[in-house]
């Protein structure tokens, strides 16, 4: 004997919760996709300012622009923050400042491919440590392997550069976990706005040194400012909103789209061709994310 059940026969709470879970996950995916695309376009723009401002100078301008934009648009109410709210905000500000500087210094020493690959160990570690089932673990490993193939890291004996990239990876893992706490404790985008503002203050001495010791040009400043919008302001808010909707493990896997967007940006903007292996790696990353999404839907239905 077979038994069929229609949607109408399910409890209203279960149906509503399932639909809400699906909407949240799809919204989270859209936010993460926009964050990754913005990040990679901004990184390409920032690299053009390296010869004039240097990595530290570009990061300083980035932080200033991101802080100014988020401070004026969100207007966080600092005086209302409680001690429990200030703690993750301060942690996020320090992480944000350290992550950007360590990554750019690493890129300057060991190249983009190796630096980005090592940095991806951060979100990958979050995904692996938070994996609940074999399918979660498998998706994270497939996405990580494909990201390495796509980035094509070259070996290096510059251990300082490698250490900086690993520091950036640790910061990215912390960024995911702390940003999730910020999103839970503070309404709207007040958390990232406050963190970005504080991070900008940390870079005032660095920025002053760069502006007084480098032959600054308006073009270089414009590129660094654009990177501040695309690499800092947009991703901070988008990631916060995404982490309110998706688990940290899924966020960690989905961040594998960053090397995909980096490769596609090179193809479209710079005219760099992609080899067959690149397209296979992109397909593997997309497949891993699709499987992870499907597993998340099943989780929602089972609950």
Précis, in short:
This protein is mainly α and 303 residues long. It has 13 helices and no strands.
What does this structure look like?
The protein is built from 13 helices and no strands. It has 303 residues and is mainly α. The longest helix is centred in the N-terminal third of the chain and has 36 residues, at 12-47.
Helix/strand layout:
Blueprint: H1 12-47, H2 50-74, H3 83-110, H4 112-119, H5 121-129, H6 134-151, H7 159-185, H8 190-202, H9 204-213, H10 218-243, H11 248-254, H12 257-268, H13 276-302
Features:
303 residues, mainly alpha, 13 helices, globular, disordered N terminus
Helix content: over 70%
Main β sheet profile: none
The sequence of SSEs as H and E is HHHHHHHHHHHHH
Kindly name the structural category: mainly alpha
Low-confidence stretches: 1-15
Q: What is the mean predicted local confidence, pLDDT?
A: 81
How far is the N terminus from the C terminus?
26 Å
Count of discrete alpha- or pi-helical segments spanning 4 or more residues = 13
Shape, per Cα inertia axes = globular
Query: What is the number of strand segments?
Result: 0
C-alpha Rg (nearest Å): 20 Å
Range of strand content: under 5%
């Amino acid at each position: 004997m077979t038994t069929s059940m229609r949607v109408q026969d399910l409890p209203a709470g279960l149906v509503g919760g399932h639909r809400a879970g699906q909407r949240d996950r799809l919204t989270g995916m859209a936010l993460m996709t926009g964050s990754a695309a913005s990040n990679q376009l901004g990184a390409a723009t920032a690299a053009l300012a390296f010869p004039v401002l240097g990595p530290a100078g570009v990061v300083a301008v980035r932080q200033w622009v991101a802080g100014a934009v988020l401070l004026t648009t969100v207007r966080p109410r600092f005086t209302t923050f409680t001690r429990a709210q200030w703690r993750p905000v301060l942690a996020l500000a320090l992480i944000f400042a350290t992550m950007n500087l360590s990554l750019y210094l690493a890129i300057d020493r060991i190249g983009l491919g190796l630096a980005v690959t090592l940095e991806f160990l951060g979100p990958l570690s979050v995904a692996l440590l938070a994996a609940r089932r074999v399918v979660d673990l498998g998706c994270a490993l497939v996405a990580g392997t494909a990201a390495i193939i796509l980035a094509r890291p070259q070996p290096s004996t510059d251990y300082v550069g490698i250490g900086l990239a690993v520091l950036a990876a640790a910061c990215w893992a912390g960024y995911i976990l702390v940003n999730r706490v910020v999103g839970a404790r503070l309404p709207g985008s007040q958390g990232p706005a406050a963190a970005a503002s504080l991070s900008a203050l940390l870079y005032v001495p660095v920025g002053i040194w760069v502006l007084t010791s480098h032959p600054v040009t308006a073009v270089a400043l414009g590129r660094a400012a654009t990177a501040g919008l695309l690499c800092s302001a947009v991703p901070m808010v988008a990631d916060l909103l995404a982490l309110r909707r998706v688990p940290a493990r899924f966020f960690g896997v989905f961040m594998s789209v960053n090397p995909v967007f980096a490769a596609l940006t090179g193809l479209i903007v710079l005219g760099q061709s992609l080899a067959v292996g690149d397209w296979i790696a992109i397909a593997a990353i997309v497949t891993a994310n699709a499987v992870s999404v499907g597993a998340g839907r099943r989780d929602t239905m089972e609950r």
